């Protein structure tokens, strides 16, 4: 009988401790979504999380009662064990009773259940919602009295606010919920657009201008002293809606031109050139968007550490990071080359990110803030644009330039070096 009661007490203590930590660890956005469903479990869950302090206090009250009962039965059993086989000093006997009881309680009713309920918090709080609600109702008035007493002490004695329900969700909770939704979706299943926008919005604040810029080698530009007819030809050739304007060199970009400015029939390029903003690559894109909106501009030059042109960013680039790809007649639909020729040999576009290539193909190409792409890595190391056919050897791999122009590297072949 006593052993049965001890086991029941341990199970109940594990339940109360687990539900307490499950509520604390669960995603509050997930719970808010779940409680709006039409199932019985959802309705019960809604009642439980309606008053968080009441729920947690009920679990604590239940756990306290169970621990008192556990101590009574466990003490009786342990005392009988020692009395039957050993004659110990009363102090030693008391110490062993406490040690054995506490050790069993900590392992079976605290550590293991709390770890388990913390890892699977969202699932377990739903599974055990009904029994938790039964104890919630059973201990309702006791827990309410405890809360009122603690609130009175906090307000009157310590001059602090009593229990207040939080009416907002943290950034982390939103992020975790969205990540869970994306992970839970099948690969073939299209992710809900609202979920994707939420995820983009959360990542938005952490992106910097250099992460989304069009690199210098891909900038379509016209010289300030070029003729208007040359400008028109470049607009037709590239099919872009905006054109960068520079003087002498791309390190001296003076502005940009909208294609619709040509309807004004300008006589010179300078006549329709709009001034441009200059920002460092480390600026966050949310700050850049605010700057461009405030200055009524749609393009900015991204400067490198030496004050030269690293690339450009448009308002469209920033908006695409939030809402996804904006398809229009100016977007390049060309897919970047990725081909496995043989084991350890890869044919890759020089525009691929170094970080992506390392993760995808297990290469160990050094990463740096000075470059993002494979082409940038090569130029950073050799200080020039290599010619087609050139081979470059690094620590553990060899790069062959398969296709390059005087302005940029297009295609490369990477081969792992044996024994390195």
Which tags fit this structure?
CBS-domain; 4 domains; 16 helices; 15% strand; 52% helix; alpha+beta; four-stranded mixed beta sheet; 420 residues
Task: Give the beta-strand count.
Answer: 12
Give helix % range: 40-55%
**Spatial ordering of strands, largest sheet:** 8-9-12-11-10
Mean pLDDT: 80
How would a textbook summarize the main sheet? 5 strands, antiparallel
How many angstroms does the end-to-end distance come to?
69 Å
Overall shape: it is elongated
What class do helices, strands and sheet pairing give? alpha+beta
As for the number of domains, it is 4
Can you walk through the features of this model?
The model is unreliable at 185-191 (pLDDT under 50). This protein is 52% helix and 15% strand. It has 420 residues and is of the alpha+beta class. It starts with a helix and ends with a strand. The longest helix is centred in the first third of the chain and has 34 residues, at 52-85. The protein has four domains: 2-157, no CATH class; 171-204, no CATH class; 209-323, CBS-domain; 338-416, Uridine Diphospho-n-acetylenolpyruvylglucosamine Reductase, domain 3 (2-Layer Sandwich), CATH 3.30.465.10. A five-stranded antiparallel sheet has the order 8-9-12-11-10, with no helix packed on it. The chain has a four-stranded mixed sheet with strand order 1-7-6-5.
